[in-house]
Amino acid sequence: MIETAFQNAEEFGFRSGDIVQEWLWDDDVDDSIREKIEQLTGEELVDEDYDSAVDGVIIWWRDGDDEDELADTIVDAYAVLGDDGPMWVLCPKPGREGAPNASTVQSAAQTAGMNAATPLTVSKDWNGIQLRAFGKGSSH
User: Fold this and answer.
1) Quick check: is 34 in a domain?
2) Cβ count within 10 A of residue 110
3) Which of 62, 68, 72, 113 could form a disulfide with 98 if both were Cys (CB 3.0 to 4.6 A apart)?
4) CA dihedral 63, 139, 55, 89 (to 10 degrees)
């Protein structure tokens, strides 16, 4: 098991009791990340069809998916995200199948009115990129 900064999922910024919405789930996702978020929050992840406000968002993204779709997904996810809760795009790490070009997530985030942080290792095969709305705690 590789130790990462995200060993217990607190680094995502989610807290106990948070409802975290998961977008673009597929059978290639890292279930250990999902389990750690559920353990931390004490709540099951909810899917795209959940129709109430949520406290956090994770979006699974792979190369080959449409960049415009990512921008649209970010906008849709942000619309239900309460109080500027944490929003993350999770992508396969460079060299892994489905790893996107470094500029793809940044470009989609900007199209959606968001800033994308530097990718962080969240598991053996996945990186996480935190998104923030322009003007909300941005370092740029």
Assistant:
1) yes
2) 15
3) 62
4) 10
Q: Is residue 82 part of a domain?
A: yes
- The set of residues, in sequence order, having a beta carbon less than 8 Å from that of 32 and lying 6+ positions away, is 123
How many structural domains does the chain have? 1
Q: What is the mean pLDDT of residues 40-44?
A: 95
CATH number at residue 35: 3.40.50.150
Phi, psi angles (nearest 5°) of residue 61: -135, 135
Residue type, 126: W
Amino acid (1-letter code) at residue 35: E
In a domain, 138, yes or no: no
Evaluate if residue 135 carries a pLDDT over 90: no
This prediction has a pTM of 0.89
Q: Which residues are CB-neighbours of 65 under 8 A, at least 6 positions away?
A: 24
Write the CA distances from 14 to 42, 68, 70, 92, 139, integer angstroms.
11, 27, 22, 21, 20
Range of the domain at 107: 16-133
